Amino acid sequence: MKDFNSYSQESGKEKKEGAEDVADLARSMARAFNGKGEADILRAIYKEAENGRKAGTLTDADLDNFYAAVAPMLDAGKRKKLEAVLKKLKKY
């Protein structure tokens, strides 16, 4: 995982909107975490969040935007787990 902001940054081209952004994010995340367990994924998320907070590049608004983009792709249980993770990340 590069960082939380990478899912919404522009790369010199016009930014895609709506479902295409979310689909791109989902594909990117799936590739990044392919074959890794939940514990590995959570460690990577917490590490990146800590780095982002220290560098001043990760805000609560970024986390909220990340949740808004990812949550619709998850079932209720995973959404609840994501909410708990983001709540913990906001304390960093």
Task: Give a quick rundown of the structure.
Helices cover 62% and strands 0% of the residues. It is mainly alpha-helical.
Describe this structure in words.
The protein has helices spanning 19-32, 38-55, 60-70, 76-89. It contains four helices and no strands. It is 62% helix and 0% strand. By secondary structure, the chain is an all-alpha fold.
Structural class: mainly alpha
Put simply, the count of helices is 4
Give the radius of gyration: 13 Å
Quick one: biggest sheet? none
Query: Which overall shape is indicated by the principal axes computed on the Cα atoms?
Result: globular
Q: What is the number of strand segments?
A: 0
Which bin fits the share of residues in helices?
A: 55-70%
Q: How would you spell out the order of helices and strands?
A: HHHH
Distance between the termini: 18 Å
Strand content: under 5%
The low-pLDDT segments are: 10-16
Rounded mean pLDDT score: 77
